[in-house]
Each structure stands twice: as structure tokens, then as C-alpha cells.
């Protein structure tokens, strides 16, 4: 991790102090090499000397752009491990994990109800929209997707390079924008994107019930929930003021305990007035509810899989709940 930040800081200094004579293609190459060393950008091949071929002058497709974005966010492993559902019928097999996780997280949409349009070249505004959404900004509310450069210029992601007249957008542009994004803070906080990537998600087996991706250093133990329902609870600490609980219940044990999994989570939540007030689907596609009790804020999401029920509960003192994103760094995938 020290190497990670050393590379970022060194190149930030180079790019910020370099005289205006630094050519755009040199800047793109510097950015591509830096991202490559971090594992966040890959080439399209290898030169005879073993160095990567970046093809920085070539226009990237939407499929390529989303793939680059997923790598930038440090989500490639969860993407490849997960099973994703999208409405798109035109995504090639190799791109399905990347488009799937990006669509599920609300970072990208299609060009039509059932079409992602991945073979078309991505425009400057489209890629800026992907990155701005990844930083927590909402298109249609914080910025217009077809004029995304207006916000990206304001937050320092870009510096007037793009406009409605921009005719060419290359993989080199993607590299520079992606590199700059590492130094942008996430909306509503003071955390840079690079800080999130510096604590990458790792796989954790929850007693054979599921694979959970989360910061490994935060997990402090897991245990069976109880003898009646043979589920597993994983406890995750978040500093001194918050805790995250992941509960997994196999369908067989729930039925044996007298619970009917065929009842929808919506009905279960709606039956409890403490939960029902703010219930609905969250940005990650899970049914969710939040409530306050005894000075603590609770955020719960429910996921019904094939033969199991997963419940995610984030508990924090009220005054810090608004500054946290409980869904961002947890990815439930590869359920058994």
C-alpha cells in the first residue's frame, strides 16, 4: 500500500509541476503507466520488450470504458466472481461481469431498455458521467449527463478540455481522467477515491454460506446466529462508532424454524411499523429500510437468493450515519 501511494504522489507532483509544454500524449502515457502499476489499467497486448500496449490514440468502446471504470474502482475481482442480472441483450460474454456490476451499482445505464450499446465508441461526456456517478454524483440532479464536463471542471476532474464541440475521445483521455479521479473527493465527504481503492475488497467465506467481499482488516469474528436457525453472522467493525452485521439464513433452516421464505421481504417489513416508514429498494437493487432507536441509526437491506436469505444491518450513532455509505464497500456475491 505504501508503494501505491508513493506512485500516486510522485506522479501527481510530476503532472502538477510539469510546464505547459508537456504534450497531451505524454500526460496520457504517464497516467496509463501509473494506473497500470496499480493494477487499475490494462493494456491490449504486450510489446516485444514486455511492456504493455495501451493504444492510447484509439477511441474506446462503451464496453471497454465500463471495464476500465470497474478496474479503477478496484472492483474487478468482485465483478468476475459475481452473477449479475441486467436487461441488456447485446453485452458480449467477456464484458458481462463489468457491465453487470456497474449497472447494479447505478454507475452506468443502457442506451435503450434492453440495449447497452457497448460496441459504440464512448463519448467524453459519457465517460465523465460514469466517473461522476462513481464519485457519488447523480445525473439529472447534480449534473446533466450530456454536459458532464461542466461539473467535472468544477471539481477538478477536468480542466476545460471537453465541451459540446469535442469530436475525439481516446483511451488516452480515459487514462488521464481516471488518474485525476483518484484525487477527487467523494460527494458529501472528504475521502478521496484513492483512499477507497487503498483498502481493497477481499473475499471472506462466511461459514460456507456465501462469499462476502469487504475490507479484510475490519472483520473481527463470525459465529452461528443461534441453534434454532442455523445461520451465520459476520461482525464488521467501523471505527468506534459503527458496526456492520451480515446475517445468512439457509432456506431449509428458516422453514424448519417455522418461517416461510415464500413471504416476500416487502411483506415482512411492511408488517412492522418501525421498519415500514422508509422501506423501498435502494440503489443496489436490494430491499432496504432504515430507522432510529435509542440514539442509534439502523440501515438494513434484505436479499432473497436461491435457497437463502441474507440480511445486512448497518448500525451507527445518528450523527455519523449520513456521512457513510453502507452499501458501497459490501458486495454479496457467489451465494451457495
SS content category: alpha+beta
String of helices and strands: HHEEHHHHHHHEEEEEHHHEEEEHE
Q: How many domains?
A: 2
Straight-line distance between termini: 32 Å
Helix content: 25-40%
DSSP, total strands = 12
Into which percentage range does the β-strand content fall?
A: 15-25%
Taking pLDDT < 50 over at least 5 consecutive residues as the criterion, the unreliable ranges are: 1-8, 13-24, 324-336
Q: What spatial order of strands do you see in the largest sheet? A: 5-6-7-11-10-9-8
**Given the structure, what is the number of helices?**
13
Summarize the topology.
Blueprint: H1 2-17, H2 24-37, E1 45-46, E2 52-53, H3 62-72, H4 76-81, H5 96-104, H6 124-134, H7 149-154, H8 171-181, H9 193-197, E3 202-205, E4 211-214, E5 219-224, E6 232-238, E7 242-250, H10 251-256, H11 265-270, H12 273-276, E8 280-281, E9 287-293, E10 296-305, E11 308-317, H13 318-321, E12 331-333
Antiparallel strand pairs: 1-2, 3-4, 4-12, 5-6, 6-7, 7-11, 8-9, 9-10, 10-11
